[in-house]
Design goal:
By secondary structure, the protein is mostly helical. The protein contains twelve helices and no strands. It is 73% helix and 0% strand.
């Protein structure tokens, strides 16, 4: 693993993680068409690149995270003093509670479904190996969400506040993204909020903060798995991993800032058109390869 390749992988990871085009879907397509028989990147590098993108969120939303942490402490205090009121919450407390509600659907992935497997394992099996046909349909789902969410947001004249139902549905959108490669996490969560009238700027912040526990939990599991593999921690990977993480963090910051600008200019739907093209091409190629 060269430092140049690690930096390139970090840049790709950072850009596709936060732009609403599905990093996992693009990674699968790249490996399907260009890396067959060559193997992928070392698991430890893959895990650490995801941690690099997590670092980008922590850098950009550090003030929001500190505010939410303080509000969590105030919330505990008010509950014990009997002063908590669900109807009269400040915006920070409301966001904190809606984030907690939106995290609940992810627990479904941990349900056992028979044979000792988790639901997450069963679902991920749909897009393993050379099965890119389902991946194409998942890209089309992302495209539909992005386009419909953008058009709906442009029609809404009076925006709504995040409620329990909307938060729960945003959580299910994140669940679909976690389960199905090709479904963009940021795209599906932001679009779902926009469909229900939530302001775009609020949904960007909500989406990326919501992704922190999901990304962290998934990567801790993968990190433990990587360490258990023979040669899981190779000292020779130290410099490439460091360079890759830095590249992922920097490109992640750039991608988030770019996405905010794109939303302000009402150009979010163009990501949908892009995913529509990728989805159609993937479906066509998938059918050709089947027959």
């Amino acid at each position: 693993m060269s430092i140049i390749k690690a930096i390139f992988s970090g840049i790709i990871q950072g850009l596709t993680e936060f732009l609403p085009i599905s990093s996992s879907g693009h990674l699968m397509l790249f490996r399907h068409f260009f890396s067959e028989g060559e193997g992928g990147d070392p698991l430890m590098l893959t895990v650490m690149l995801h941690m690099g993108t997590l670092l980008a969120v922590l850098i950009l939303y550090r003030k929001t995270l500190l505010t939410l942490l303080k509000e969590a402490l105030y919330l505990v205090r008010d509950v014990f003093k009997g002063k908590f009121s669900f109807e009269n919450m400040n915006p920070d407390r409301a966001m904190l509670i809606m984030l907690a509600i939106a995290c609940v659907p992810l627990l479904l992935l941990m349900l056992p479904v028979g044979g000792g497997d988790l639901l997450m394992d069963k679902v991920s099996a749909l897009t393993t190996g050379d099965k890119i046909l389902p991946l194409g349909f998942f890209f089309l789902i992302t495209a539909a969400l992005l386009i419909f969410g953008s058009l709906q947001s442009e029609r809404i004249k009076k925006h709504a506040k995040m409620g329990v139902l909307t938060a729960f549905l945003v959580g299910f959108a994140q669940l679909a993204a976690a389960a199905f490669p090709g479904v963009s996490r940021s795209g599906s969560t932001i679009s779902t909020g926009m469909i229900f009238g939530i302001p775009k700027n609020y949904m960007v912040k909500f989406s990326f903060v919501l992704g922190i526990p999901a990304i962290l939990a998934a990567n801790l599991v993968e990190f433990k798995h990587a360490l258990s593999l023979p040669g899981g921690f190779d000292k020779a990977l130290f410099l490439p991993i460091t360079a890759g993480v830095a590249a992922a963090a920097i490109s992640g910051v750039i991608a988030i800032k770019a996405l905010i600008i794109i939303l302000k200019r009402d150009m979010f739907k163009y990501f949908g058109y892009y995913c529509l093209v990728v989805g159609v091409v993937t479906v066509v190629v998938g059918f050709v390869q089947m027959f």
